[in-house]
Amino acid sequence: MSSFWSIWISVITLGSILGCFLILRWCLSNKTGVKEGEDMHHEFDGIIEINNQLPKWWTMLFYVCIIWGVVYLVLYSGLGNFKGLLNWQSSNQNIRSLAESKAAVEALKTNGMISQYDREIASADAQYAPIFDAYFKKPITELARDPEALKVGQRLFSQNCSQCHGSDAGGQRGFPNLTDNDWLYGGSPEKIKETLLNGRQALMPAWIDVLGEQGIKEVVSYALSLSNRPDLDPKLVAAGKEKFANCVACHGADGKGNHAFGAPNLTDQIWLYGGTEKAITETLTHGRNGVMPSFKNTLGEKKIHLVASYIYSLSQNK
């Protein structure tokens, strides 16, 4: 932090604390000209104002808070470029990656210091590691029927996956629904766990340069016909079927997709980016590039084992 910002923050912080102290002292002084306990001659709706000072317990509470604020600044949080006498910090600052986080933790350990956040993580790992170890020894199919294991898996899902897939795992545009039996890369316990561990990189290329606008219109018509859409132009469908040869390598000759490539089934009514003529045209014209991040370094294999169990359980009654 530059000297300017260090001074700026210090002045504002100390000024605020001093301001609170001065306001408190002003409130405690009697500048009304009316003796304490007497009528202030203010009345509203039958309520008369009496000149009473703040209750002593309330006054003492204000003083304690002000003193504690100063003590906290001196010992813990510091001020500006001053780090505090105890050199304490809540977490490792300015971290941009997991690698930097691990390096910062090791550096603090070397210097005989550990941030508050790292202490809490270490304590939680020590407390809950045996629980995760026990669950890890059980197969996903068994954990999918264990209510207690599913509760843990659901909490981990809510913390790490719900931002994209929704709190109910129902998905949204561009993010798959995990509660049905439609899977881009396969819905077996092994495949779900593989996806969570390694992530996925999906690529649907743009076809505008190859097919042109008319060609895309024809392929869109054929793709819609695969899911039995009504009121399609037979000529466009027939022409699109011939051009669909460009798509067979990923989606298959029957359009039912390929788990090896993450290519979706085009014969059902489930569409990741929308199944309208406009949405499919947009997909063919511009392509799609979906990313599922790897959680291997974030959660670790044992926690992923529980998340996979929870996700697997969601589609078993569908």
From TrEMBL:
Pathway per the UniProt entry: Energy metabolism; oxidative phosphorylation
Record text on cofactor binding: Binds 2 heme C groups per subunit.
Cellular localization per UniProt: Cell inner membrane
Keywords: Cell inner membrane, Cell membrane, Electron transport, Heme, Hydrogen ion transport, Ion transport, Iron, Membrane, Metal-binding, Oxidoreductase, Repeat, Respiratory chain, Transmembrane, Transmembrane helix, Transport
Membrane-spanning parts: 6-28, 60-79
Pfam family, one: Cytochrome_CBB3
Assembly and binders: Component of the cbb3-type cytochrome c oxidase.
Role summary: C-type cytochrome. Part of the cbb3-type cytochrome c oxidase complex.
Protein name, entry field: Cbb3-type cytochrome c oxidase subunit
Organism: Paraglaciecola aquimarina
Lineage: Bacteria, Pseudomonadati, Pseudomonadota, Gammaproteobacteria, Alteromonadales
